[in-house]
Amino acid sequence: LKWKRENGKITCSITVPANSSATLYLPLSKGKTLSESDKEISGNKYISVMKETDESVIYKLKSGSYNFTIQ
């Protein structure tokens, strides 16, 4: 897991090993957008929302590499 904050955006890179899953908590305040590899997350069969609030989102990730951006 790698985090980076730069020019008003946060990037998070994570690799989930084969035959595994992970739970990822991301802060997400109102007015901010979240993408994975510059694409919308909805419809991605490898990422599912476990919980969403006004201030954060929790995802369940299947094995693979992900690059999230909050801006």
Protein described:
- This protein has strands spanning 2-6, 9-27, 34-36, 47-52, 56-70.
- The model has no long low-confidence stretch (mean pLDDT 92).
- Strands 1, 2, 3, 4 and 5 form a five-stranded antiparallel sheet that branches.
- It is mostly beta strands.
- The chain has no helices and five strands.
Q: State the major sheet.
A: 5 strands, antiparallel
Separation of the first and last Cα atoms: 19 Å
How many helices in DSSP terms? 0
Principal-axis shape equals globular
Structural class: mainly beta
Q: Tell me what portion of residues adopts beta-strand conformation.
A: over 45%
Quantity of strands, as a count: 5
Could you give the topology of this structure?
Elements: E1 2-6, E2 9-27, E3 34-36, E4 47-52, E5 56-70
Antiparallel strand pairs: 1-2, 2-5, 3-5, 4-5
What labels would you give this structure?
71 residues, mainly beta, five-stranded antiparallel beta sheet, 68% strand, globular
